[in-house]
Amino acid sequence: MRSTFTSTTRLSLLSLLCLCSALSAQAQSAFQRPSDAVEYRQAGFELMGTHFRRLNAMAQGKVAYDAKAVEDNMAVIAAISKLPFTAFVPGSDKVKGTEALPEVWSQPAKFQEAADKFQAEVGKLQAAVKGGKPDEVKVAAGAVGQSCKACHDNFKQKGH
Ligand code: ASC
């Protein structure tokens, strides 16, 4: 005996299924699970921190200034600087191991402002590095460090 579904009904059900999965894929973030978002943003901040510390050590005169190394570190920082901020997605505030404070989600305008400030300072540092004057790189790197700290003070658990 043939199925009670006519082929037209089956086609309609199939279309509906496709439509639903397309819509839910659209509604989903780029991250499959909230913990993926946390790993992604932590990896980004970690890499930026590593390259910023290398650059800053030279900028502050703690390590001999090597213009090529400063440029290379700067390129990494510039490439990554916007990425972690795409990963503070809803639900990722509840993931075990996140050091992000609830204020990231409860004060989104303030958090965005802090992120914008950081990115603006990174832009200025990039210009200073391009300009090739170590004194200007020093000042701009100091301002980037301040913008990292300002965001940590308000949006990251203490002691991290
Ligand atoms: C760094 C680094 C940060 C900032 C911050 C400045 O080198 O990894 O997150 O500077 O500590 O206060």
What's the end-to-end separation, in Å?
A: 67 Å
Tell me what portion of residues adopts beta-strand conformation: under 5%
Helicity, as a percent range: 55-70%
How would you sum up the global shape?
elongated
What class, by secondary structure content? Answer: mainly alpha
Q: Uncertain regions: pLDDT < 50 for 5+ in a row?
A: none
* Hetero groups: ascorbic acid
In words, what does this structure look like?
The protein is mostly helical and 160 residues long. 69% of the residues lie in helices and 0% in strands. The protein contains six helices and no strands. It has helices at residues 7-27, 34-59, 67-80, 103-106, 108-131, 134-155. Helix 2 (34-59) runs antiparallel to helix 3 and helix 5 runs antiparallel to helix 6 (134-155). The structure holds ascorbic acid (ASC). Ascorbic acid binds next to helix 2 and helix 6. Ascorbic acid is lined by residues 49, 52-53, 56, 145, 148-149.
Summarize the structure.
The chain is mostly helical and 160 residues long. Helices cover 69% and strands 0% of the residues. The mean pLDDT is 89.
SSE order and pairing:
Layout: H1 7-27, H2 34-59, H3 67-80, H4 103-106, H5 108-131, H6 134-155
Bound molecules: ascorbic acid.
List the main descriptive attributes of the protein structure presented here:
binds ascorbic acid, 69% helix, 6 helices, mainly alpha, 160 residues
